[in-house]
Amino acid sequence: MMEAVEGLVRILEREDVEWEVFYQFGRSGSFKIERETLERSQRKFYSGIGLRVGLKGRLGFSYITGLHPSEEELEKLVERAVKLAKISEVPFRGFPAHENVKRVPGIYDREIDEIPFEEAQGLALEYAELMRGKKAGETISGSISLAVGTNGVVNSNGVELEESSTYMGVSAYAVLSDPPGTGSYSQNFTSLQPFEVLENAVEKAVEEARLSARAEKLEPYSGELVLEPTALESVIGVFLSNLYGDEVYHGRSRFSKPGEEVGSFTLVDDSTIPELPGSYSFDGEGTPGQKTTLVGDGVVRNFLLDHTYASFLGMESTGNALRTFRSTPHIGPSNIVLEPGEESLEDYEGVIVRKVFGEHTANPVSGDFSLTVELGYVVENGELKPFKDNMLVGNVFELLRTLRPGKEPERVQSFISPRVLVGGRLV
Amino acid sequence: MEWLMKRAEELARKHGVDYYEIRLIKVTSRRLAMSNGQLRELSSNSELGVGARAFNGAWGFSSANDRERFEKAIETAMKIAKLSRGDARIYLGDPVRDEVELRVKKPFTAVDIEEALSLVKEIDGMLKGEKIVNRNVSYGDSVVETLYFNSLGSEIRTVVPRIRLGFSVTARENGSMQDFWKSFGGTVGWELIEGIDIDYWTSHVKEKVFELLRASSPPSGEMDVIADPELTGVFIHEALGHAVEADSVKNGDSILAGKLGEKIAVEGLNVVDDPTLPGKFGSYPYDDEGIRAKRVEIIRDGVLVNYLNDRETAEYFGLEPNGHARAESYAYQPLVRMSNTYVEPGDWSFEEMLEEVRNGLYMLGDKGGEVDTANGTFTFGAKLGYIVENGELKEPVRDVALSGKILDVLKNIRAIGNDTRVEFPGYCGKGQWVPVDDGGPHILTRALVGGLR
């Protein structure tokens, strides 16, 4: 345990309260390339300590930044959190007890942790050069980010955990101006990637921009269509907030308990998948990460839960308390996986939607959505005709009832899914 | 902090950096959130951090929030700038020395957190009702104190207070669910809260949510749409504002590149972005590059007359700097952003506008939006609407998103109302979040409506 946390624990042990200390420290380097030129490089440092105090069924929270506080600052932090617990009325349902935590492999890469900044910036300069080499009429932009961070939780129930993880993010963005077309690609990793990953990013963005520039608006269409994982992620996002335990408890979800039928697919949240940036061995309260079936064979089986809302709902925490040192835990997904099914959709002929945007304008409680199609295409006799600017409209609960997953899963950041077949409508 | 300024100067000399700027920011904030009468959050915190940028043909940036790393962050930014091999140029201009505190009538810092808690409880109680399955109330305030200094000798101290109150209800009937909400905010004090007719607004959100429960989904397809002042705000923010942020233009990412001086909208359309409007949520006295905030006319009588810019894009386009570089916090680099964006009033009354519509929709409220500035397509969401038939308002329709092409819809505006309001606070995301306000009068245009009918 680091010195500041040890000092804090010593003070807390004198008080007649339950407590939890969550600390973080880390650094990141990121590089932004605009029109094939490295324009902005940055290196950030962050650290801080968040303290939750439970007193007579009430919760107080406060935080400080930095990891070198004086004894006086630590005393004040405790004093503030205790004072807030006295007036707060935020219900306190205890902190998780110590459990054995199984470490998720592959989420820390020493190479990223130890890469000299100059070398990382060199990689970004090479990436810019690659863009210059690949361009033909497009302008190409993009970014590389590298980060390392450590999270730790210590509480009065004997939890004492610390974990470091690393991150590499890659993005590319291509624009054609006349006629206008855009293409983008982004992916994230837990380890330093070979140069081919950068080449692939640029190629995918350029290919998509060329498709987009050829795309025209499609005549209104209603019927069977395929959603690629990126478009499906937007639609699933509208549905997912109905599975957050706090939304369920506070009546802002379609569901009040597990058991309702929603279709014939399986959707899981899994923070234990090796080598994924959404993975962790324990959540922001020290609950071990786990695989949770949210929808199993079409039936709602569980919700995303932290310790507090699990307790309110008479359930068990699913280890989905996400947080920073600045905040108390909030419920959120880790990696969301839609399990593959039986449909062969790789050579599907018909209407395919690749990307949509505007999902935050959708209404998660009614389920209605109308999303702008950024890119789609119709495949006929092996020939591909791109389209854009239509709206994909529908109701998420109705759409999911028609969903039939394909066979080949693909990863888009922390969402893993095959292409899926749905009944949908384009206007 | 004199030692930090002195040290920055020494480090710049050591690393041969031409230009640097440092923001030392202290934020004091409080937040309360309540759901269904249960308090979910009550916090009161403050933090201090530093963000340092150095320029050497390209930008180097570093930030830290541990005091022991402040100096290192400054040196890191300089080292990075030195390593970068860019050939960009930036606007330098004269040094500025100033101290500005946005004055309020009744500082919220003098109001105990207990009083804010009773306000939240009172509103929660007023939102109760049959069929209401969820009530949410949130209150937040913050004071941001910034010391900005740069290598030109600028030294600017600003204090910006900001307050926000929002509440929502969700209603359920026969398995159907809907929600409705209202928020208030500004760079003002507790007088904002005292000026709100809580009785009226809590009844209003309940009334509207019940109307939504009865509403059907609107028809789909391209049609005439009257937007209310709140929806006009998000429309102009998405349909125009993002595409005139000069970093997008410079990066080849805007459909409005090369269109300065061109007529891109109907005659009579005037659009302004003004961070100097007193008390608005998106207001500020200086931007995060130490440039004085300035009212900018974006469209004058249908002609695109200006971009919003920062030090780099002002120099690149040979424009006068207009103070639109904003950062979410010390830990972020400034980007070109909007502040309070609005459409100036025209001369149509709402009734006259309504009479113009044979078949269309009257859509109200802002559910946010998104834009693809390079393709020129945008989406924006409305909370509620009404069918319009032969100039008359008919049955209500549910919240829905609309979409359009920037270059088409600005030319499709058929009527501009005389009732401009700029009082719809929100946050705008562009990789980082900043507070903004927007608005305008009622306007009549055409858009693609994504209804389910």
From TrEMBL, chain A:
Residues that span the membrane, as ranges: none
Domain Metalloprotease TldD/E central residue range list: 111-206
Single biological process term from Gene Ontology: proteolysis
Gene Ontology annotations for the cellular component aspect, listed alphabetically: cytosol
Entry superkingdom: Archaea
The protein, known as: Peptidase
Residue ranges occupied by any Metalloprotease TldD/E C-terminal domain in the UniProt entry: 225-423
Naturally occurring in which organism (per UniProt): Thermococcus eurythermalis
Metalloprotease TldD/E N-terminal domain span: 19-85
Molecular function via GO: metallopeptidase activity
InterPro entries listed in its UniProt record: Metalloprtase-TldD/E_C, Metalloprtase-TldD/E_cen_dom, Metalloprtase-TldD/E_N, PmbA, TldD/PmbA_N, TldD/PmbA_sf
TrEMBL record, chain B:
Gene Ontology CC terms: cytosol
Residue ranges occupied by any Metalloprotease TldD/E central domain in the UniProt entry: 107-195
Any GO molecular function: metallopeptidase activity
Metalloprotease TldD/E N-terminal domain mapped to chain residues: 20-81
Domain of life: Archaea
InterPro entries, sorted: Metalloprtase-TldD/E_C, Metalloprtase-TldD/E_cen_dom, Metalloprtase-TldD/E_N, Peptidase_U62_metallo, TldD, TldD/PmbA_N, TldD/PmbA_sf
Keywords: Hydrolase, Metalloprotease, Protease
Record GO biological process: proteolysis
Domain Metalloprotease TldD/E C-terminal: 220-446
Family: Belongs to the peptidase U62 family.
Protein name as annotated: TLDD-like protein
Organism: Thermococcus eurythermalis
